[in-house]
Amino acid sequence: MRLITIALWFGLALTSTATFSQSSDEKVATFAGGCFWCVEKAFEDVPGVREAVSGYAGGTEVDPSYEQVAGGQTSHTEAVQVYYDPSVVSYTGLLQAFWRMMDPTDLDGQFVDRGQQYRPAIFYHNEQQREIALREREKLREQNRYEDPVVVPVEPFTTFYRAEDYHQDYYKKSSVRYWIYTRNSGRFQFTEKVWGDDYDVDFRKFEDKPAMSDAEQPQASLDFSDYQKPADETLREQLTPLQYSVSQRGKTERAFNNEYWDEERAGIYVDIVSGEPLFSSADKFESGTGWPSFTKPIDDKFVVTKTDRSWFMTRTEVKSRYADSHLGHVFEDGPEPTGLRYCMNSAAMRFIPLDDMAEEGYSEYIDQVKD
């Protein structure tokens, strides 16, 4: 079995580091569903797929190595790009295959492989793929096959780095090790149980439907990639003195004397500056510290950590990715299932009640807020 945690993301436009070429009659799709050995093999079994290429996507570092990605040293995740003949299998057919090879309810990894470098995602290359992915995800939610909500993200494709040669077609090169790993991971047992008699289907029978009307459009994932943080003087005007000193200067508000430490309503906590989604009330717990505490972020892509050596100690600081707001610190003394305690400052966040989330543009996170 692989020793490092897993979680897949896909996406990203081909860069000069990708050595596999697309023929004129083919299309390309990018998916993430955990270990790329498993996802590559599963897609190469689909009729109409010429090749699936393992690689790294979703991060900002240039030309990452397997050791860096698997060790969680980059913002990339393992990914697979699929080259397929649309006259044989549609993008909808690929999505149907994708559902049957992964767990779309788990944002923290896939099966035995844990960590952001193995989180799942669908990365669309064009507007048609985005519409189809959103529509098929909504259909999957309506089937109620899973005990937990279907939350796999649908994100725009940007860059992709081909993995080292020894990872390509790993199931052929190291077949014994591959089968031992994938069977012990629980992947096949999970997907076969979830899909039952619907597990084995002809993926060529699924057609891409026409574009959705505005009324049919599911809400796309929030995109802060173009966000521009306001100037410091603007922030001083927009924020209260406490909000500014906490979020912009890394100060800490007083325990038991802040807005959300005892907040019990259902809702989402977002960055006070940018509105990035940070934490869900479903993951909030009473830590006894006097600050709002959570077991995990609601969406890993909006929360980053860094080493903090201030005050003659070493701690892990938590910040929002795009606004770069200081939120608090994370400690390893929290409850299950993560064992983590994200100890946050109320002044760095804004609380949006569940009933207001759709109106304010956070519909895609409603299922993660409901207990």
From TrEMBL:
A Pfam family cross-referenced in the UniProt record is SelR
Read off the Gene3D superfamilies from this record.
Peptide methionine sulfoxide reductase (2.170.150.20), Peptide methionine sulphoxide reductase MsrA (3.30.1060.10)
Describe the location of the MsrB domain by residue ranges: 232-354
Chemical reaction(s) catalysed: L-methionyl-[protein] + [thioredoxin]-disulfide + H2O = L-methionyl-(R)-S-oxide-[protein] + [thioredoxin]-dithiol; [thioredoxin]-disulfide + L-methionine + H2O = L-methionine (S)-S-oxide + [thioredoxin]-dithiol; L-methionyl-[protein] + [thioredoxin]-disulfide + H2O = L-methionyl-(S)-S-oxide-[protein] + [thioredoxin]-dithiol
Record GO terms (molecular function): L-methionine:thioredoxin-disulfide S-oxidoreductase activity; peptide-methionine (R)-S-oxide reductase activity; peptide-methionine (S)-S-oxide reductase activity
Asked if the keyword Signal belongs to this entry, the reply reads: yes
Cross-referenced PROSITE patterns, in alphabetical order? MSRB
* EC number(s) per entry: 1.8.4.11, 1.8.4.12
Quote the catalytic residue positions.
Answer: C35, C343 (nucleophile)
Matching InterPro entries, A to Z?
Answer: Met_Sox_Rdtase_MsrA_dom, Met_Sox_Rdtase_MsrA_sf, Met_Sox_Rdtase_MsrB_dom, Mss4-like_sf
Top-rank lineage group of the source organism: Bacteria
Q: Show which residues constitute the signal peptide.
A: 1-18
- Keyword Ribosomal protein in annotation: no
Keywords, sorted A to Z:
Multifunctional enzyme, Oxidoreductase, Signal
Q: What family does this belong to?
A: Belongs to the MsrA Met sulfoxide reductase family. Belongs to the MsrB Met sulfoxide reductase family.
HAMAP family reported in the protein's UniProt record? MsrA (MF_01401), MsrB (MF_01400)
What role does it play?
A: Has an important function as a repair enzyme for proteins that have been inactivated by oxidation. Catalyzes the reversible oxidation-reduction of methionine sulfoxide in proteins to methionine.
User: What name is this protein filed under?
Assistant: Multifunctional fusion protein
Species whose genome carries this gene: Pseudidiomarina halophila
Q: What is the lineage of its organism?
A: Bacteria, Pseudomonadati, Pseudomonadota, Gammaproteobacteria, Alteromonadales
